[in-house]
Write a structure and sequence with these properties.
Shape: globular
Number of strands: 0
Order of helices and strands: HHHHHHHHH
Structural class: mainly alpha
Strand content: under 5%
Largest sheet: none
Length: about 200
Amino acid sequence: MKTKTLLYFGFFAPVIFWVTTLICGLILDDYNHLKWLVSELGAVGTPTQYLFTTGLVLSAFLNVFFTIGLWKYCKKLQLSIIPIIMLSLYSFIAGPAIFPMPLKLHSISGLPMPFIMTSPLVALWVWRKKEYLLKFRTAAIISLIIMILGFLIFFPNVLNEYFGLKQRFLYTGWTTWSVYLSYRFLNLTNIKTNNSNR
């Protein structure tokens, strides 16, 4: 598969995630996205269990392909691949989808996923000399701030009735970062193609 094709999956992986959660939320009676966990959409015995699992596993696989595309392009540009490795941790979302609540493996299988927030943080350091090329600093800072808001789940007295909202900050930050990287690296491939055609 061409690198450029792989880079498009940075758009599609978040779209699949959000469409899956929104559709499953509509199917479940009285589900509140602001109050309830994402995992509750795929809990054992729910009418949305298999739809939820399918959507999240597909999103995880698309993220794998996306990070492969980023890895290939980073090699060409001689960029550190550490931010890409950290971004690939989102794919561990397949674990909690395959092992739904309340199975024991549900929470354990997704433990690496929150570390995706280190991707924009590490990028700010290791890609700083390529800011002129990637123009990523603003997107990295915004993504990082949104993801950090996800840590509010460890402070039950803050937005105590909106646990679902606090959890979704992590996914929103990942979406912002993934979509930006897809957009920016696709731009770079287009610039390179146009220059080679002159």
